[in-house]
Amino acid sequence: MATKKSTSRKSSGSSRQSTAKKTIGKIENLGKQVVKNSLAQKDPFVDVPTRSISNTQFNKRRRILEMGGNSQRRNLFNLGQAKKFMQTVLLSEGCRDLIKADKTLSLRGMFYKSLHTIAGTNEKTFGDQGESDTILEDLEVTLDTLREDLHVFAKKRGTMVGNITVIDNGDRIDCRRMGTGGYAIPSICEPNVLKFDKCEAKFVLHVEKDTVWSRFNEDRFWETHNCILTEGSGQPPRGVRRLLNRLHNELNLPIYCLLDCDPWGHYIYSVIKQGSMNLAYESRRMAVPEAKYIGIRSDDYERCDLSDDVKIQLNDRDIERAKQIANYPWFADRKDWQKEIKRLLSNGFKMEVESLITKDISYVSEVYVPERLKKKDFLD
Amino acid sequence: MTPTATPTRPRSGAKMSKDKKSKSTTRKRASAEQMASSQREISVSEFFAKNRHLLGFDNPRKAMLTTVKEAVDNALDACEEGGILPEIHVGVLQLSETRFKITIRDNGPGIVRQQIENIFGKLLYGSKFHRMKMSRGQQGIGISAAGMYGLMTTGQPVLIVSKTKKNKPSHEVVLKIDTTKNRPVVVSETEHPEDDKLFPEGHGTQVAIELEGKYQKGRQSIDEYIEQTAIANPHARFEYVTPSNETIEVPRAMDELPPDPIEIKPHPKGIELGTLIQMLERTKSTQLGAFFKNEFCRVGPRVAKEICKKAKLTDRTWIKNVGHDDAEALYDAIQDVRIMAPPTNCLVPIGSKGLLAGLLKEVKAEFFSVASRSPAVYRGNPFLIEVGIAYGGKLSSEESSRILRFANRVPLLYQQSACSSFKAVVETGWKNYGLQQPRGSLPVGPLVILIHMASVWVPFTSESKEAIADYDEIRKEMKLAIQECGRKLGTYLRRRQKMKRESERRSVFERYIGEIASSCEAITGTSSKKVYDALLEQSQRKTAEADQQLDDEGRIVEENGRLGKDENVIILDDLEQEPAADVIGDLFSSTGTTTKKRKKASSGTRKASSKKKKVVKKVVKKRTVRKKN
Q: What phi-psi label fits residue B17: left (phi over 0), alpha (psi between -120 and 50 degrees) or beta?
């Protein structure tokens, strides 16, 4: 490693300072390599690990998705890659600036930071935010670092409430006293930002979306059952997944998921449990292989004696997706899941969590979930 | 039709009303004798007078084109047979709105006085039908039918002037056709003095036909016909006076006559049973062995013996003893015996050089490629396919491509989609060669495809000779030739595409280098100028190829690619400044002595390409258009 002249300025902790130093070192290495190749009249490149299903492996022992060893070389002197190469270098510079200034920016902020018109042309460095988002994810894997360490965060999504107190960037937050809105789960849930304080909760109930979460919160479910209630607004963002992972690993809390009975709900469960393909390199920090699936189950239509009105016809895409999911290796060896998906397909309809409201407004929080928990009736 | 046995039986409504009209309840009966009185022979001319669409006289516009075509075909045939470089004058004079006078004059050997009326006044009279020799005309219908059409639409007879030798007078014959008897009627004849100004060379024929017609430029016009004839006959010179009194001169592209085709005898595998029986009846030979040897090609004593043996006869069998069953056995035997393919020296292709010259002269494109197949056989008739492709340049890229079809050097302008060549083009996968092609149709792009079929007998779909019949053997040969040209076009297009990408690449790279250099400075502290210069140098080196190709004339130049050495391919890189004439000259000058490099717009860094076009013997003048007063 070459000489490092960068020094991290004032910082809250020494660990934080050292990660910053390490990340800057990685960025500088990338820059030096590009300069070295350029001066040597070689085609400059960066090797970007491939983030696709082909380069994703399922680790059977750990039961999580992991990234394979494939990477793709991104050259400057290749017509299809030239612009991406330029964008990669540009965003490296941007991240280095951020870390040096010890500030964080959202993905959108990062897009604006590196956005300008290329001198002498009408072309902008980025067409839209989507371009810079993917390059940032590329950069993350290329540098073998985390987005959080690059000081970039995504728009926050997801809420938490329950018998726990956390310390967020030095502020003590009592999640028992969050009113109707709840505590917004930050995008970065690393230990240097978010610390756990006092926790009496015995488990975590994660629900798919805000509406169901509100139902539980209003019924004070977390109080009566002594738990933490989280919500991820559909597919949970990194922050929520990282939080669930930490709650499980650091506080030994089991995670239960209440999701819709359709392929999309199943896949949310899959992402929480095994990690996602796009962020396979983060699975170790995010996945909770022990997470359990409470419902909604395909046989709940008869079990709970629901009315015909809650049925939503499966469309072609649903059917195709369900078959795809059934074939994922981490579902393939789960007999219960195979049965569940088969039943969903033979039913020919899907159900949302809200369908339980047809029984009674609080049926879900007062009957459905408590019964399932009591009987330990989950899918794994 | 024989009358029905029960005349009172009720018939269909239409018939009933007809019967009522004739005011009779029973149908009138005609006896066989009565019918016989109205049964008589139909002469060919009568038949074709009624069915003139069969000969290409469907409408006034087409009739005029067919007239010109038949006359020019005859003129070219005559000149070539006489070993004379053709000089053809075509005059279209507008007499009134719908009336035209067509005059065609050639410098051929002329026609002896006695034959004039037969050739021009009798349908199915000619020298070309009975022989197996490659020629434009086949049946001996065309020109007399044109005269008949003129006579029928305007009442005016045909006027023929012909001169055979310098010191002999020329004959002028005014001719009508008696259609009922298919017989010529000479209206008047005059003898002109020896120094006829019409024929400066001392020999030639002129025919003038007045007819009802319509003149329109564009596709399927006389103009197009002449243009295409010039492509396929680069050795002929044309002078065309249009109805608006403009004279268009089409000079020769080559000074060599094509070799005279050799006449061949029929091939045994090409005849049918009926023909065989007829030939047996007519032959002068007395024994089977001699019959086969004398009447067919490719049959020697050994093959003749083998055929006879297979038919359980011998080569000594007397022909008069050969019955119908024997003939059938002989016919079957012929199919079984291996016989050498017919000789192919009877075919005279236009040739690669001739095709290239013709295309260069008439098509303003940038890429030319030709392919000539070796002869093949269909139904015992030898034939040969030649294909030429012209691409790019000033051709329109929006429309689908154009096919120029030729049979024995005669352009075919009608019924494209019925033609074997059209099917061959459609069946070729043009996408492989970098062109767009909607399913089941012609490729789209600035493309002209020339297809020529040379054969002793071209199988037309009709007497008007508009489309080549779709024999599998023919279509296969056409496709192979098209593919050969197509592959070269594909190579050229891919190369061109690559060049384009290279140049695009350069601008793209240079655009991003600045950004990269300044980011690198921010990250590593290395001077951005240093990185920028290094990257720029590299970028320029990477695109050096494109630089070299483009900075000369701003267009793509083939230098040392495979195509550059291919003598069946010509690539023009500057259409604006340079008439193609120069290149045509180069084509025929491999033996020339003077060397002259191809002129260049700029004397840039261009290298070896001019070596390809070596020598210029003769510069062909550009096509000129001048106004007659």
A: alpha
Q: Sorting pLDDT into bands at 50, 70 and 90, what band is B583?
A: low
Task: List Cα–Cα distances, B6 to B22, B28, B34, B199, in angstroms.
Answer: 19, 12, 20, 71
Interchain contact, A83 vs B508, CB within 8 Å: yes
Q: B504 to chain A: nearest residue by CA?
A: A79
Q: Does A85 sit within 8 Å of B523, measured CB to CB?
A: no
A59: which strand partners? A64
CB contact under 8 A, B525 and A5: yes
Backbone phi and psi for residue A83, each to the nearest 5 degrees, phi listed first:
-70, -40
Report the residue of chain B nearest A96, measured CA to CA. Answer: B523
A112 catalytic per annotation: yes
A301 compared with B29, residue with greater pLDDT: A301
**Of A31, A82, A96, Cβ closest to residue B512:** A82
pLDDT digits (tens, 9 = 90+) for B259-303: 888 888 888 887 888 888 888 888 888 888 889 888 888 888 888
Per-residue pLDDT at B552: 39
pLDDT at B591: 35
What per-residue confidence (pLDDT) applies to B24?
52
B297-326 burial, b for 16+ CB within 10 Å, e for fewer? bbbeeebbbbbbebbebebebebeebeeeb
> What is the arithmetic mean of pLDDT over A330-355?
91
Contact A125 B534 (CB under 8 A): no
The whole-number pLDDT of residue B581 equals 52
Q: Is residue A9 part of a domain?
A: no
How far is it, in rounded angstroms, from Cα B370 to Cα B334? 37
The reported pLDDT for the residue numbered B3 is 45
Inter-chain residue contact A28 with B531, CB threshold 8 Å: no
Give CA–CA dist A5/A15, Å, rounded.
19
Q: Could you tell me if the ipTM is greater than 0.90?
A: no
Give yes or no: residues A169 and A120 share one domain: no
Minimal Cα distance from A76: which residue of B?
B509
Mean residue pLDDT across chain B? 79
Could you give the CA distance from residue B63 to residue B57 in angstroms, rounded to a whole number?
4
Tens of pLDDT, residue by residue over A195-227, are 999 999 999 999 998 999 999 999 999 999 999
Tell me, yes or no, whether A278 and A187 share the same domain.
yes
Which one of A31, A77, A118 has the shortest CB-CB distance to B523?
A31
At CB < 8 Å, which residues of chain B contact A? Answer: 501, 504-505, 508-509, 511-512, 514-516, 519-520, 522-526, 530-531, 534-535, 537-539, 541-542
Which residues span the domain enclosing A32?
14-43+78-153
Residues A331 and A204 in one domain: yes
Looking at the domain covering B268-336, what would its CATH class be? Answer: mainly alpha
Cα–Cα distance for residue pair A342/B264, rounded to 1 Å: 79
Class of B49-250 per CATH?
alpha beta
Interchain CB distance below 8 Å, B511 and A121: yes
The total number of structural domains that make up chain A: 2
Q: Is the pLDDT of residue A174 over 90?
A: yes
Same domain, A344 and A265: yes
Kindly report the CATH class assigned to B349-629: alpha beta
Same domain, A127 and A222: no
What does the domain layout of chain B look like in residue ranges?
Answer: 49-250, 268-336, 349-629
Interface test with A, best of B518, B520, B523, B542 (most A CBs within 10 A): B523
- Least Cα distance to A168 among A199, A204, A193 occurs for A193
Catalytic residue among A112, A183, A267, A293: A112
If asked whether residues A94 and A136 sit together in one domain, one would say yes
Give the list of residues 6+ apart from residue B198 with CB closer than 8 angstroms, or none. B105, B161, B163, B170, B204, B206
Q: Which of B523, B537, B539 sits opposite A28 (nearest CB)?
A: B523
Query: B301-310 and B288-295 are packed helices; what angle lies between their axes, rounded to 10 degrees?
Result: 130
